[in-house]
Automatic annotation (TrEMBL), chain A:
Gene3D superfamilies: MetI-like. It is found in: Cell membrane. It comes from the Bacteria. Keywords: Cell membrane, Membrane, Transmembrane, Transmembrane helix, Transport. The keyword Cell inner membrane does not apply. Pfam families: BPD_transp_1, BPD_transp_1_N. Its main location: membrane. Residues 94-311 form the ABC transmembrane type-1 domain. This is ABC transporter permease. Belongs to the binding-protein-dependent transport system permease family. The chain crosses the membrane at residues 12-30, 98-121, 133-154, 174-198, 243-268, 288-314. The keyword Methyltransferase does not apply. GO terms for biological process: transmembrane transport.
TrEMBL record, chain B:
It comes from the Bacteria. Belongs to the ABC transporter superfamily. The lineage of its organism: Bacteria, Pseudomonadati, Pseudomonadota, Alphaproteobacteria, Hyphomicrobiales. The keyword Lipid metabolism does not apply. The keyword Membrane applies. Residues 8-256 form the ABC transporter domain. This is ABC transporter ATP-binding protein. It comes from Bradyrhizobium zhengyangense. GO terms for cellular component: plasma membrane. Involved in beta-(1-->2)glucan export. Transmembrane domains (TMD) form a pore in the inner membrane and the ATP-binding domain (NBD) is responsible for energy generation.
């Protein structure tokens, strides 16, 4: 088990180095950052001085080594536009994005699993058909459109929910949270639903298909022949077997949720990393873009690792293959 | 005469399909007495498994019991509400399926599955149920049951898993066990062990056993009586010695002729020409008539009803005195 975890961790580091090369190469190929930072009337000598102070004249390998070394300590340089350390900017924005992503995932998991189980068990009921139709909409409508429609309905027309921002936040150490104030919670509702809707439909369809599959298996038939209650069969035996693939997908989707938060954050002007990234792209603020890329990859890789480990906890068969293989 | 544990009368099972209703079981009747093993044989699709499933009330839609009645120790069970039938399943009727590799839920320890079943049917504490589970595992011949109880199904071999399945089937001391091809998926050497285990359990607990198989060897070794099924009907039923040594129905004769012997004669095995009709295309009269060597006119028109011949009962016009003249 330890060897398995260690091997996966080493693979993860390999992936992070590869991402580092890509994010570093952005600095080299996305135009001359000095041009973005200075005005039209800056002299060549001044430009050269700035270039030298930023270390842009050093050979590639030196710059890359320095970059990776700094990134490993969460130093991503100074933002061109804000003139502040990128890591400070990201840390300041991260709580907003993580809270949004976690709420969206919880929403997607709970409603996705409930709807999936319901539509598998009552396959021919009208509610199951409605769920199927809703899931089709959730999969095919683009996120930003759903966000805008919700703003129009709940903020503009009904005036129930705020159309942008996080509401009032409370500071706990360096973390800021909107979960403790009413306006913060209200502000969280629409962005979470917008962000989680796609995952919800995905999970719902997955749970439904898996559940139908599991209900056809011999061990469910045997469980019925043993006279177990329908409740025990559906929620004890069938659901647990269904959740194995659902955990993988939902876990891996958490990474996409953070990545897709860019769009939701833009629509709702949510002050998270995604919005920071979009602004950075508009201003060619490469240190922020590169750091964002690294952060998202780190989250992806970490989640992958956690899912692999979770997998072995849920499914005892993997536990023994894992320990046998190492 | 004491009441049989299981009594099936004129059972009909139908499956609704796109091209009309298919009748998988058409008028099957038999009894199983306490402590008796009834072997049910026949080719694939003859309706053996469907008969077993309808007794335990697990025919899945679109299938349904369309007629007849099933009585368990006198109580009619084919029309019980689902919840009452659920209480009978596992408690009064145990079932063993064909494939032990897929019968157990892979995510739960075998002990938890046994304890869950025991506690569903019997009012026992967790500890008492666990002790009972260990005793059951010992009874079905699993070594070191107090350790193996915490194992997962994938840690057991096929034969051992079938023993666990049997322990699950008998954990509430049922009056009837339905074993649906319990040895088909196992090695030959393990088959014999499982068969003798089922036989021993039936004898020790006085449990009636309905043993569904297509293996005549298994039947001859285990059963007290045997029912030969063909195309959803019972062709012949009787004591196993009589049916094996002196089969009456031409189909039963064919089946017995197809059993290889070790006697050393190098006769070719008898083969029944043709194959069983599809459910959508069962011939008029006797469903066996297109393959029968002794067929005569009446077989193509009238459906034969069971006739008593000593201890045996056979559904064939050859044994009806009324058709003797026409046959000659």
């Amino acid at each position: 088990m330890l060897a398995f975890t260690l091997r996966r961790a080493i693979q993860a580091i390999g992936v992070m180095i590869a991402v580092g090369i890509i994010s570093f190469s952005m600095f080299r190929f996305a135009g001359d950052p000095v041009n973005q930072m200075v005005g039209m009337d800056t002299s060549g000598a001044e430009r050269a001085a700035i270039r030298k102070s930023l270390g842009l004249d050093d050979p590639f390998i030196v710059q890359f080594g320095r970059y990776v070394g700094n990134a490993a300590q969460f130093k991503f340089g100074v933002s061109y536009q804000f003139r502040l350390p990128v890591s400070d900017l990201l840390m300041e924005r991260m709580p907003a994005t993580l809270e949004l992503a976690i709420c969206a995932t919880i929403f997607a998991m709970i409603s996705g699993i409930l709807m999936g189980v319901y539509s598998a068990l009552r396959r021919d009921s009208w509610l199951a058909h409605i769920f199927q139709a809703v899931s089709l909409i959730g999969i095919s409508l683009p996120t930003f459109l759903i966000g805008i429609l919700m703003i129009y309905l709940f903020s503009v027309t009904l005036g129930w929910l705020p159309s942008f921002g996080r509401g009032d936040v409370v500071h706990i150490g360096w973390w800021t949270t909107g979960l403790l104030t009413l306006s913060g919670l209200k502000a969280l509702i629409m962005p979470s639903i917008t962000l989680g809707l796609f995952q919800m439909t995905l999970i719902m369809r997955l749970v439904r298909a898996e559940m139908l599959e599991v209900l056809r298996t011999d061990y469910i038939r045997f469980a019925r022949a043993r006279g177990l209650t329908t409740r025990a069969i559906h929620f004890g035996h069938a659901l647990r077997n269904t959740l194995v693939p659902v955990i993988t997908v939902a876990g891996l989707q958490f990474g996409s949720v953070i990545a897709f938060a860019i769009i939701t954050e833009t629509v709702f002007q949510w002050p998270g990393m995604g919005l920071l990234f979009v602004q950075a792209v508009q201003n060619v603020d490469i240190p922020i873009m590169a750091a964002y890329l690294m952060m998202v990859s780190l989250i992806f890789v970490t989640i992958n690792l956690v899912v692999d480990i979770l997998y072995t906890i849920v499914d005892p068969r993997l536990r023994s293959t894992v320990s046998r293989a190492h | 005469m004491t009441e049989p544990v299981l009594s099936v009368r004129n059972l009909k099972v139908e499956f609704a399909s796109r091209r009309g209703t298919l009748r998988a079981i058409d008028g099957v009747s038999f009894d199983i007495a306490k402590g008796e093993v009834l072997g049910v044989v026949g080719e694939s699709g003859a309706g053996k498994s469907v008969t077993g499933l309808s007794v335990i009330g697990l025919i899945d839609p679109p299938g349904r019991i369309a007629g007849g009645e099933i009585r368990l120790a006198g109580l009619r069970i084919d029309d019980l509400p689902p919840e009452e039938m659920r209480r009978i399943r596992g408690k009064r009727i145990g079932m063993i399926f064909q494939d032990p590799l897929t019968s157990l839920n892979p995510l739960y320890r075998v002990g938890d599955q046994i304890v869950e079943t025991i506690r569903t049917h019997l009012n026992l504490s967790e500890q008492a149920a666990r002790r009972r589970a260990i005793d059951l595992l010992a009874e079905v011949g699993i070594p070191a049951p107090d350790k193996r109880i915490d194992g997962y199904p994938h840690e057991f071999s096929g034969g051992m898993r079938q023993r666990v399945v049997i322990a699950l089937a008998i954990c509430a001391e049922p009056e009837l066990i339905i074993a649906d091809e319990p040895t088909t998926a196992l090695d030959v050497s393990v088959q014999a062990q499982i068969i003798s285990l089922i036989k021993r359990l039936g004898r020790d607990h006085g449990t009636a056993v309905m043993l569904v198989t297509h293996d005549m060897g298994v039947i001859a070794e285990t059963s007290d009586r045997v029912a030969v099924m063909y195309a959803g009907r019972v062709a012949e039923i009787g004591p196993v010695q009589d049916v094996v040594r002196n089969p009456l129905h031409p189909y039963a004769k064919g089946l017995m002729g197809a059993i290889p012997t070790l006697a050393g004669d190098d006769k070719r095995l008898v083969q029944i020409p043709g194959s069983m009709p599809r459910l959508s295309n069962i011939p008029r009269g006797c469903s066996f008539n297109p393959r029968c060597a002794s067929v005569f006119d009446r077989c193509r028109v009238d459906r034969p009803e069971p006739l008593s011949r000593g201890a045996q009962s056979v559904a064939c016009h050859l044994y009806d005195p009324a058709s003797a003249e026409t046959a000659a």
